[in-house]
Specification:
By secondary structure, the protein is an alpha/beta fold. The protein contains five helices and five strands; from the N terminus they run βαβαβαβαβα. The chain has a five-stranded parallel beta sheet with strand order 2-1-4-3-5. Helix 3 links the parallel strand 3 and strand 4. The chain starts with a strand and ends in an 8-residue tail after the last helix.
Amino acid sequence: MKISLWSIGKAHEPSVKTGIEEYTKRVNNYFPAEWTILPPVKNGHALSAADLKKKEGEAVLLLLKPDDYLVALDEKGKQHSSEALSAFLAKCSVEATKNVIFLIGGAYGLDPVVLQKAKWSWSLSLLTFPHQLVRLILAEQIYRACTILRNEKYHHK
């Protein structure tokens, strides 16, 4: 099983890049993992929020393959514990899911068409975080879930 981490926006900012790279490297000890940064829509500032989400959604849909398992990070999604994320990864692994994609939308979120394609909608928190920080939190939580799978010491409960 491969873990793909997709984010719409600019490249990782230096303030979080080291942490993102470190946690992604750690995840690679359990599952192959890699980031795909989808560039911002050209002249996106001139579009309405709905039109911008639609354009971003079109770019995402072009990259999705039929057997990809899409997890949408969405403020209206369900909140899950680290243990639940671990159980989810275990289930995907047992079911021989080829590619699990965790998708972070743009500034206005994800287009409804993309949300409909998602098999799991996940809200990290009721709080609002900057997209760059969400990348770091996502990478860390996936690493944490992997350590829970192996009953390693990183996660204390």
